[in-house]
Amino acid sequence: MAVASEISARVRALRAELEAHNRAYYVFDAPTIADAEYDRLFRELQALETAHPELLCADSPTQRVGGAPLAQFVQRRHSAPMLSLNNAFADEEVAAFDRRCREALGAESVDYACEPKLDGLAITLVYERGLFAYGATRGDGTSGEDVSANLRTLRNLPLRLLGDVLPERLEVRGEVLLYRRDFAQLNQRQREAGAREFINPRNAAAGSLRQLDPRITARRPLRFLAYAVAALDGLPMPSHHSAAMAQLAQWGLPVAAERNTVTGLDGLLGYYQRLGARRDSLPYDIDGVVYKVDSLAAQEQLGFVSRAPRFALAHKFPAQEEATRVLDIEVQVGRTGALTPVARLEPVFVGGVTVTNATLHNEGEVRRKDVRVGDSVLVRRAGDVIPEVVAVIQERRPADAREFAMPARCPVCGSAVERPADEAIARCSGGLYCPAQRTAALLHFASRRALDIEGLGDKLVEQLVAANLVNTPADIYRLDMAALSALERMGEKSAANILAAIEKSKTTTLARFIYALGIRNVGESTARDLARHFGRIEALLAADEAALERVPDVGPVVAASIRRFCAEPHNLQVIGALRQAGVAWPDGEAAAAATSKIAGKSFVLTGTLAGLSRDQAKDMIEARGGRVTGSVSTKTDFVVAGAEAGAKLERALQLGIQVIDAAQLLHLLET
Ligand code: 9MJ
Description:
Elements: H1 2-27, H2 35-51, E1 75-77, E2 87-88, H3 91-105, E3 111-118, E4 121-128, E5 131-137, E6 143-145, H4 148-151, E7 169-178, H5 180-192, H6 201-209, H7 214-218, E8 222-233, H8 241-250, E9 260-263, H9 264-278, E10 286-293, H10 296-302, E11 304-305, E12 308-309, E13 312-316, E14 321-333, E15 339-350, E16 353-359, H11 363-369, E17 376-380, E18 388-392, E19 417-418, E20 427-428, H12 435-446, H13 458-466, H14 473-476, H15 481-485, H16 492-505, H17 510-516, H18 524-534, H19 537-542, H20 545-548, H21 556-566, H22 569-580, H23 589-595, E21 602-606, H24 614-623, E22 627-629, E23 638-641, H25 647-655, E24 658-660, H26 662-670
Parallel strand pairs: 2-13, 21-22, 21-23, 23-24
Antiparallel strand pairs: 1-6, 3-9, 3-10, 4-5, 4-7, 7-8, 10-13, 11-12, 14-15, 14-17, 15-16, 17-18, 19-20
Helix pairs in contact: 1-2, 3-9, 12-13, 17-18
The structure holds 5-amino-3-(furan-2-yl)-1H-1,2,4-triazole-1-carboxamide.
């Protein structure tokens, strides 16, 4: 008997501990245990429950893995109807809502609870004496499907409420959803398993919850978030909705962190603005915000119209996904010749703008999503991200839908299209012969973070390339009033502005200049590193791959790209012509090299330098016009000595040559 009670105590302790870890991880997003340790405790509990089946109970964490498949779902009648919300899109509709509430309540101003409008599946949960009893979908609002077996597998849904003061019966309303990162992982798994990907988190959540086999649901990382108390028996109801939500949180039920209470119309619109600004950085998709009159007595007084409460309003954000039709699939040629398939769309209003094109990224992506000309597709535009085709609506595929094929020749210049076997991207082999690549390269050169030539945008560059006025960036500096004002729709004033901007761009920095060259795989931060490391453009152009790889964050791929670029005589000519035209970095590194204390000086390196490899030190000295030699002589200016320096250091001391350490060298290099 003593053993049995010890075992049941251990079982209780294991359950409590595992559920505490579940809560920490899934409710508070703050893991308190390593996965392996969790698994060990879990298996210990499983083993005890197998050996002592009389100890098994429905609220054990082991029950979250999903029981036997069901033949069908049973219907559950809701004790109170599950309502929908009235929607508003414009501020005026929100103002009207606030006015109606104030008038009906005879109040000067109204306090509201605000919360995110979760884009998942509405669910009702029932707890009896603190234990999860059952849960059901909304269904027709009066009765829904009992999906309790599936709900038990949700790791953040408490199977037992926390605390000692618990209601006789609690009915909670909320939403089942997938966090974005969990959705991404789920789709990654689907891809790896060769299974169909889900269109969006909402669809994945819906599909997962309607599974008859709870073991499948258990493998989908669904979560629950509560947003209303529908019934509370055996305890007094809090006076306000916000207090009721806080009470749910205390009982261990997950609620959205972004809840807030505000006063009046300004408060409502302020919340909408603030949450809208954070929309894309929330862990889950939301499609708006929900306003609820905070006082529950006032809610009761306001009551309902048809099937929606008069005390609540959903204020929607512009939809981020809409359906439209693919009119054509074209390929766009980028700066590096990359061919990007782009879907031309029937115009659709999504994410707050009218979208007519959406990227399909590459050929593999077109195949994977199986997008065809004529298809109806879901288009997504979130924040400032370029619109993309999310998925094809297969049921609406017309019989004559046409498959996409990557052209064998560049649609702009006719050069052969190449695609190395190990790369996803097909490229035009035309290089700067290709007007599309030329245009893109020029736009990049003139862009804000490169040489920053204001006014040299899409239209003008296209005109200049078409008129054969500009072929390389160096040609920009040969433009004059006559050439520019001969262009269509170009006034004298605009031409003068552009010439002034071109003139201004001549004064730049080495980092911007390197970035502007548009070397493949060299972005802004690599350009900065290269400038800092080499100091002079000549040093960069002369560097071999080994020297390049000594730059922080430059690996073999980037080094090879730079070498390829520098090995192309045409590129060197352009760089020469740009400098000839007066592009310079006067306050920058070239000037520093010419006047540096190091220019013309001779260095010998010996011993292990602290925090600096020999090669790094050599590059940096040479970049500033110094020389590094192998042996110490009377001509040596500095000996840089590190740990375990030997004969060379001795010789330097004999000859009275200045000896410095790595830190002093760095100081010298900086001055
Ligand atoms: C959603 N979907 O996030 C309600 N909802 O309240 C929130 N839905 C709701 N509240 C009463 N936050 C009926 C529906």
